[in-house]
Amino acid sequence: AEREAAALLKVETVREVTSALAAPDMEGRGTAQPGGDRAAKYLADRFAKLGLKPLGDNGTYLQQIKFESTEVAPETSLKAGATTLKHGDDFIVPPPYTAEQIEVRGGVVFAGYGVVSQRLKRNDFEGLDVEGKFVVLLQGQPKNVDQAAWEQAADTQSTLRNVFSRRAAGLIVANIDKPGQSYAVVAGYLTRRSVERAGGAELSFKLPPIVLVSNSGAEKLFDGSGTTYAQSLEKAANGDFVSRDLGKETTATIRIKKYEATSSNVVAVLEGSDPKLKDEAIIYTAHYDAYGVGSDGRIYPGAADNALGVAQIVSIAEVFAKSPARPRRSVIFLAVTGEEYGLLGAEHWVEHPTWPLAKLAANLNFDGIGTEVYGPVKKVVGFGSEHSNLGAVLDGAVVANGAAIIPDPLPEEKAFYRSDHYALVKKGIPALMLLGGPEGDTAVFIARMKKWLETDYHQPSDTVRPEWNWDGARTLAVIGLVTGMRVANADTMPAWLATSPFNRPRGGK
Predict the structure, then answer these.
(1) Less packed terminus of the chain by CB within 10 Å, N or C?
(2) Which long-range contacts (CB under 8 A, 24 or more apart) does 38-41 make?
(3) Distance CA 455, CA 367 (A)
(4) What average pLDDT is seen over the chain?
């Protein structure tokens, strides 16, 4: 039965759905944007044509969620003396946004790293009058400093207290660049709109404005002060006292646009064949959202992350729908929205489930960076395998498909905690996220992953590529299919291992 089902899984379906979702007319499938709505309708139509039953709101395939979208408006500016800094290139305004209109004027002073510590014999505010002024601080730390003492004195809470207890008008943070994360990368994320579920708690406090500046923006702040930003940065790194008044008036004008909109999870079910076990279900998940259309008009297609993952669960749904023998348990297919903003769609579904959580046998999640298209899949990572006996089921399916299980190649990325399955894991549902890789030297595979993360991850360049190996994507889908079949047809549901910190009843808190 598994061989017959695997033979039904079409590489054409994986390619077709991926290409459709990553196409220009989907406009990056942004959460609470028109392109995201088009993608949801496309998936609902696919599920309907397969004959799957709707499992959304009011007999539909869609589970609507209200969101609040927030972005920094173009008229936002930072003016220092006669020079106006450009939003994005020179400075950015990070969330949280405590008001929709902010205008603050004041002088500007440089206070080094903003550290005050008797243990370090250091007071970066010595001789400075910061009241009613903007304070420029450096990220990082000097060379040859007592690390333990520095970490205690220079934590974020202490630094903010040092600034705002002195009644500063605002905070300007410089020296943003660090290995693997440049100012440009940070600005690329923080100039995009933010999205959260509507009805969240309002902030109980309101800080003065905080902005981040690039190196070029910092130089404009220091211009005419008698020293340059680069000179001050070098002296600060050497441990010299560098604090000084920069001698110019600064105005921060911040305008925030907020609006409410809806987006939808797409959810369907194939009813199981066993009179008793059909009340239980295995659930396949993948997020269909990407970053949509940016304020600058750029589109983020999200081909590898995660049109490809959605295409894989659609191809699996097609097999289950067309197979002559139905699985004993029911099978749910959940394409979620809002993942890129913090698993919002998945969190909403587990809080408002359209299937009893206590009756969910397991979750198989497809989300990645497209490593399965590097070549024929011969290696598989099952994120979460160590937590339940679902890992053993995956291992059997991987071996049956001529591949091998390998450990997480980038454990520092903590991928297990960063995708939609984690919302279900927290509710006691055993889950796995699948990642496939090619045969050959693992170091070569990892190097390609890292390069993609640096150049294409969450960028407009995440597109369908001519060199993609679609058979690799199909293989990973087949492994997910067979794993799901074994769970759906087993006498008992998967169980947590006693050693897992997630070992708790399904549906519990």
Answers:
(1) C
(2) 39/288, 39/289, 40/263, 40/264, 40/266, 40/288, 40/335, 40/337
(3) 18
(4) 95
Mean pLDDT, residues 491-508: 96
- Measure the CA–CA gap between 62 and 209, rounded to whole angstroms: 39
The Cα 366–Cα 287 span in angstroms is 8
Q: Which of 58, 59, 56, 53 is nearest to 317 (CA)?
A: 53
pLDDT digit string, tens, across residues 418-471: 999 999 999 999 999 999 999 999 999 999 999 999 999 999 999 999 999 999
Burial class (CB in 10 A: 0-12, 13-18, 19+), 509: exposed
Question: What 8-state DSSP symbol labels residue 306?
Answer: I
CA count, 13 A, side-chain hemisphere, 229: 18
Which amino acid would we find at residue 383?
F
CB neighbours of residue 290 within 10 Å: 29
Per DSSP, helices labelled H in 80-226 are 147-153, 156-164, 183-190, 215-222
**What pLDDT score was predicted for residue 181?**
84
Distance, in Å, from the CA atom of 38 to the CA atom of 135, rounded to the nearest integer, reads: 46
Residue-wise pLDDT for 18-37, tens only, equals: 999 999 999 999 999 999 99
Q: Looking at the predicted structure, is the pLDDT value of residue 200 above 90?
A: no
H or E stretch including 103?
A: strand 101-110
